[in-house]
Amino acid sequence: MIQIQGLTKIYRKSQPPAVKNVTLEINQGEIMGFAGLNGAGKSTTIRIVSGIIFPTSGKVLVNGHDIVREKVEASKHIGWVPELPNFEPNGKAIPLLKYYAGFYGIGPREAEEKAEMLLKKFNVWEARKRPLKDYSQGMKKRFSIAAAMIGDPDNFLFDETLNGLDPEGVKNMRDFMLSLKKDGKAVFLSSHILSELENVADRIAIIRRGELIKVIDRSELGSLGKSSVKITLHNSDSKVSGILEEFGSVEINGNVVYIRDLNIPQAENYRITEALFGAGYRVISITTESEGLEEYFLQLVGEGK
Amino acid sequence: MRDFLYDLRRTLSGKFTITMIALIVLFTVAIAFAAASTSSSSGASPSSTAYLLPAVFDNNGTYKVVDYAIDGYGHPVPNLKIVSYMTYAYSGTGSSSGEVQRYVNGTTDANGYFNYSFTSSASFQDYSYNNEYIDGINASSSLISIVNVSSAQNSYFTLRSEGFSEGSNYAIWLYPVDNQSNRAEQNIVLHYVPYSNSTLPTMGVYYNVTNPGGFSFPISSTTNMTYFKTISGMNNALITLPLNRSDNNRFVVVELFNSTGVYVVGTVGHFYSTVSASSFIEGFLQIPYEFLIPILGIFSAYFYYGKDKASGVLESIITRPVTKGRVMASRFTGGAVSFLAGILIALALADLIVLKYTGSALSTSSFFSILVGYTVEAIGFSGIIYLVSQFVKSQGGILGIGIALFFLMSLFWADLMDVILFELHANLAARSGLVESIILDSISPSYYPTLVLTYHTGYLFSLLGLVGSNVTAASVGITLVSVAIIGIVWVVVPSLASFFLARSRD
Question: At B454, is the pLDDT very low, low, confident or very high (cuts 50, 70, 90)?
């Protein structure tokens, strides 16, 4: 479990905070998506949570341990997968994993077995004798996941990890994250690929200019923003506009009528049908359309620009 | 703490550490071997030096010159071109008086001998020759003359000095040469030159070891001397006296006595005379280490820490259960231990090499003075680069500053400080000026080895060979306390500052 409490990071006093008073909680068995434009503060937040940089104020608790004050204990429960993995260029997979494993108190023999298992699992085994500088970006990311898993942590941080992966890589990563969730791990995933966040995230936190502006629950994804209704009539005319304007902004295109910015809950859409029937119109079809995450996200982050 | 120890262990067993220790050791051993194996009391390699041991006989106007050439180890030197001459004076009237020279030139045979005979009616003859040759070329600036005081009284004549004996029909040389297997010890060449074919009659070899100023020569009596052995039946022999380190630099009188116990010939000298291992090792390490130690300190800090920090590689470690401060501390400690181990092994091996070739070993205090001086210097430079790494974010920047610091704080530091002192009109002839100079020099870790050695020798500028100057180390503030404080400062301050910055900075 990761608890981010009032997190603020100021790099330079002359500049606005990179992260400002962010509070967030990622529970065990949950995938928390983290969305924001470039420079919004996603990576800064994740780097603070991983212990790479220090917060200016606020705190991060990892399984109850403060990442600053109890760094060693907190880091035992964190696996970090960066966007651009940066390992010892001349290092080789097994010795490096064994070295990392030592920090978790894993003995050399167990570390070797674990390294072999992880390298095979993430399809890096064949390249184990090559220096890491010779790995492709995808291989580096797979190795990076293996490195994150060497200590079998309860919490995972994925910082733009999907970037640069081919479709197969994205799918594998998605499956892997879902398997982590199934195993009860907490996953904090920052990504630009909103459709992937929609696919895997239980909640999505949206950050803008360092401030957390919205946390969307998975159940809300289908009804984001304002809805619109598309109605196909058998005999549309100009009077339809007067009948439907109480439900929103009406737009008529032949027999197809749109009600934009619907001002009633979707559950009450039957009232539109009733009004049309009452006025003698034959309704062929009526469908409700909601804004997608992307539109909603762009709308959210665009506000205040 | 477990994370610190774990990373320290990994640092110490890493390839870079092993390479660095191997580099220090191999480099030091190589220069120790080169310096020790070519060291010689005469300054030239003994094998390329030749000495001439002449004898001249006069038998009723028939002169016989017997030259014998040996190298610095006492081996005969064949094919040595000898240029010498006999001179006699004649007295005439007016301008007809003067000298007549007869060149006695030739080449030694396979056994190192050159014989020359001639007849002359002159009653006085002098033999002038070059005593020393290096690579076959005369090395003596002046000729040595053997003066025939009166051939009427002496049918033989040769050098009137110690180490030479003259009998009615023979001459004996005792000549000190280097001992090829133990450079501390000198052999004595016994060269017996008969007028006609004969070998050395039975002789007893005696010696006496005395302190400087406490000897008399010749002793001419076996009573107060130690019997070594009896020799006979040869023309040339090498005598190696049973001396040991306790006889270092003490005078040894060696004398031969005939079978009836009558003194025949003797010589005196330091036949067990070692160089000072301390000044010798300091001497050959000083210049190479002036480059090696700061460079290793700077580059090790860069490769252990600065490079990884600037490139981001360190992030993949920091996300593990370890703190930034402990990663920095483990790398720094690993480097420091590596310096200590490398210099310790290198110095021990250098000491053994020097012992083999010169017979002199470092005293414990000299050993630790050199070890501590250079180790602290390396740690000091390393600590500075750790500190720089906390502020500079690029690999090139750290390396560039490191190289600049090498030039500034190692190569040109003393010169820069001299310029400052000059501008401040410091009087280096006065004690206060020397203290100011030492304080300024001590601002760089490169001065620390000099500081430690100055404290150890007790005199200022000991490395410049000015031991014996009346400026003692203590009189300019170089005491155990000040040296220890400066050492601790160089070891602790940059590293500790770097540690706290690593703990608190991104």
Answer: confident
Task: Pick A103's closest partner by Cβ from B6, B313, B504.
Answer: B6
Encoding tokens for residue B207? 């010696």
- 5-64 of B, contacting A, C-beta below 8 A: 6-7, 10
CB interface of A with B, residues 89-128, below 8 Å = 89, 99-100, 102-105
Higher-scoring residue by pLDDT: B122, A228: A228
Q: Do B313 and A80 touch (CB under 8 A)?
A: no
CATH topology of domain A226-292: Alpha-Beta Plaits (3.30.70)
Distance of alpha carbon A284 from alpha carbon A269, whole angstroms = 15
Classify each residue of A84-116 as buried b or exposed e, where b means 16 or more C-beta atoms within 10 Å of its C-beta: ebbbbeebebbebbbbbbbbbebeeeebbebbe
Torsion sign (Cα): B316, B320, B323, B326: negative
Nearest Cα residue in chain A from B311: A86
Report domain extents, chain B. 2-39+276-411, 46-269
Identity of the residue in B6, B321, B504 whose CB atom sits nearest the CB atom of A76: B321
Which residues have C-beta within 8 Å of that of residue B329, sequence separation ≥ 6? Answer: B4, B495, B499
pLDDT of residue B64: 85
* pLDDT of B172 strictly over 70: yes
CA-to-CA dists, residue B328 to A95, B315, B385, B386, B499, angstroms: 21, 12, 12, 8, 6
CA atoms within 13 A on the CB side of A9: 28
Q: Write the DSSP string, A66-96.
A: ETTTTHHHHHTTEEEE-SS----TT-BHHHH
pLDDT of residue B216: 79
Domain A2-221 has CATH 3.10.310.10: no
ipTM: 0.81
SS (H, E, C) A140-189: HHHHHHHHHHCCCCCEEEEECCCCCCCHHHHHHHHHHHHHHHHCCCEEEE
Residue (of B174, B125, B175) closest to B154 by Cα position: B125
Amino acid, res. B362: L
Domain residue limits, chain A: 2-221, 226-292
Structure tokens at B91: 């007295």
Task: Return the number of other C-beta atoms located less than 10 Å from residue B59's C-beta.
Answer: 15
Using an 8 Å CB-CB cutoff, list chain B residues near A99: 10
What is the DSSP code (8-state) at residue B472?
A: B
Task: Give the pLDDT confidence of A178-234 residue by residue, as tens digits.
Answer: 999 999 999 999 987 788 888 889 999 999 999 999 898 887 776 666 778 889 998
Rounded Cα distance, B351 and B278, in Å: 9
For residue A7, give both structure tokens. 């997190």
Query: Cβ A102–B10 below 8 Å, yes or no?
Result: yes
CA Rg value for chain A:
25
CA distances from B427 to A56, A195, B435, B478 (A): 53, 79, 10, 18
Render pLDDT for A63-78 as a digit per residue (tens, 0 to 9).
Answer: 999 999 999 999 999 9
A-chain residues near B504 (CB < 8 A) = 54
B323 touches chain A (CB under 8 A): yes
Which pLDDT value is given to residue B463? Answer: 38
pLDDT-derived band at B465 (thresholds 50, 70, 90) equals: very low
Strand partners, A3: A25, A61
Q: Among A11, A76, A147, whose Cβ lies nearest the Cβ of B316?
A: A147
Amino acid identity of residue B278, one-letter, is S
